[in-house]
Amino acid sequence: MDILHYVGPAALLVSIVALFMRTMPALRLLASIAAVLGIAAGAIAGTAWLWIGAAMALAVNLWRDFEARATVKRLAGEADPSPTALFALVARETLGAGQVLFKRGDPGEEMYLVVEGEIEIVELGKTLGAGQVLGEVALLVPTHKRTATARAKGAVTLARMTRRDMELTALQNPAFGFELLKLVARRLSDDVERLERRAER
Predict the structure, then answer these.
(1) pLDDT tens-digit series, residues 185-194
(2) Contacts within 8 Å (CB) and 24+ apart, 136-140
(3) Which residues contact 90 (CB under 8 A, 6 or more apart)?
(4) 177, 170 in Cβ contact below 8 A?
């Protein structure tokens, strides 16, 4: 059988699998493999538009991957790397006024950065604004459960990082992981102090 009968379907299959990837590194890898197979299929079939399009897709994927790795490398070299800087690489979502992001006790698989607006941490009576991180505790505790309810005080834009993305980033950039642990420690310490002050009233 002609090799094209294998290469073409293989490229399509890899492209479909890439659509179900939940992390950007995995998606980029599979998309690059699909592009290489597309280039091969176009070359074998003598179809210029196919291999040229696949080559352009490969170039874009490699460039985006280079940008992401360069950002991680740059942050690793900073004296005080900020976890929030890496949220530039992840997905965004919006909430309407009063909409609940998550409830206490819910399973937690994502952490968030407030890009615009304010989020109320209901049980603690605390408000988080632009540039502040929330939901990170659930990613690190063994139960992966939310410790409080988060609700939008108005229109809110959030950047979302999954637990898998957080783990991959921490593996590539230990300084990021260390800063994230310090953030969680500060958050827990502040929450304990706030609850203690409430109990003394």
Answers:
(1) 777 777 777 7
(2) 136/83, 136/111, 136/180, 136/183, 136/184, 136/187, 137/108, 137/184, 137/187, 137/188, 138/107, 138/108, 138/109, 138/111, 139/108, 139/109, 139/110, 139/111, 139/163, 139/166, 140/180, 140/181, 140/184
(3) 24, 159, 160, 161, 162, 165
(4) yes
C-alpha distances out from residue 188 to 65, 97, 151, 178, 183, Å: 34, 27, 19, 15, 9
Mean pLDDT of 61-69: 79
* Position 156 confidence tier, pLDDT thresholds 50, 70, 90: very high
**Residues across the chain:** 201
Average pLDDT, the chain: 80
Please state whether the predicted TM-score (pTM) of the whole model is above 0.85: no
Which residue carries 């003598």 as its tokens? 46
Cα torsion 178, 23, 142, 146 to 10°: value is: 100
